[in-house]
Amino acid sequence: MTISPAAHPAAPAVAALLDAAGTLNEIALRSILRSHSDEHGVDDTVVDVVLPFLREIGLAWERGTHTVAHEHFASQIVRGWLMGEALSGGSDPAPHAGPSPVVLACPPGERHDLGLLCFHVLITRAGVPSRFLGSDTPLPGLGDVCRVVAASGVVVAATRRRSFEAHGGALRMLARHYPLTIGGAGADAEIAGRVGATGLSTDMRRSVSEFVDWHARITAAA
Predict the structure, then answer these.
(1) pTM exceeds 0.70 for this model
(2) Listed residue (15, 8, 94, 30) closest to 60, CA to CA
(3) Which of 51, 183, 217, 218 is the most buried if burial means most Cβ atoms within 10 Å?
């Protein structure tokens, strides 16, 4: 669930975020996100600014121009902004008046959950009720949450293929009870078929559109 690395008019905002991260300027980071979302909308800011920025700050760490501390600092600012938008951007239906939520999580050992959080924000804003559990989620605990909320579906995301392979049995068990989709850099069609899941596109806009359609179909068939 990433955005293509093509040039985009939002590139100046991404560069400004990278500069602000380099000086640990929290006010500037928040201001850039707020002003871009005010002008271009939250969805475009998530896809065109936040995701490329997260990729760029990772590359900056590899180049040595930013440290792990810079990356962690900026990531927490981004996380706070995303969580705020997730809470304000959509509303669940009244009890018993609409579909049950989908549950989103990263499997054990997977700590990179900001891409999944971006997905959570976007599907929530598109009208899909969602519960975000985040990184390093024990799969038995994920199953417990699904039972409590009567989940209409589950999304599991990971950056490494071995994260899915290591928990293939638990994922197959989960897929027997709830419609399962997998995404992230570690997901592909072969591993999706192996665990009985539907794979998400690597393009964020496409994956959101396809997921909203998929969710509409499974809730209509329920």
Answers:
(1) yes
(2) 15
(3) 183
Q: How far apart are CA 184 and CA 168, in angstroms?
A: 16
Torsion region of 187: left, alpha or beta (phi above 0 gives left; psi -120 to 50 gives alpha): beta
Burial code (b: 16+ CB inside 10 Å, e: under 16) for 163-182 equals bbeebeebbeebbeebbbbb
Quick one: angle between helices 26-40 and 68-88, nearest 10?
40
Rounded Cα–Cα distance for residues 1 and 24 (Å): 27
Residue 2 has pLDDT above 50, yes or no: no
The enclosing H or E element of 51 equals helix 51-63
Q: Kindly indicate the confidence band of residue 96, based on its pLDDT and cuts at 50, 70 and 90.
A: very low
Output b/e per residue, 102-117; b: 16+ Cβ within 10 A. Answer: bbbbbbbebebbbbbb
Long-range contacts of 79-83 (CB under 8 A, 24+ apart): 79/114, 79/117, 81/30, 81/33, 81/34, 81/50, 82/46, 82/50, 82/114, 82/117, 82/118, 82/120, 82/121, 83/117
Tell me the per-residue pLDDT of 100-112, one tens digit each, with 9 for 90 and over: 899 999 999 999 9
For 99-151, the pLDDT digits (tens) are: 789 999 999 999 999 999 999 999 999 999 999 999 999 999 999 999 999 99
29 and 21 in contact (C-beta within 8 Å)? yes
Burial class (CB in 10 A: 0-12, 13-18, 19+), 149: middle
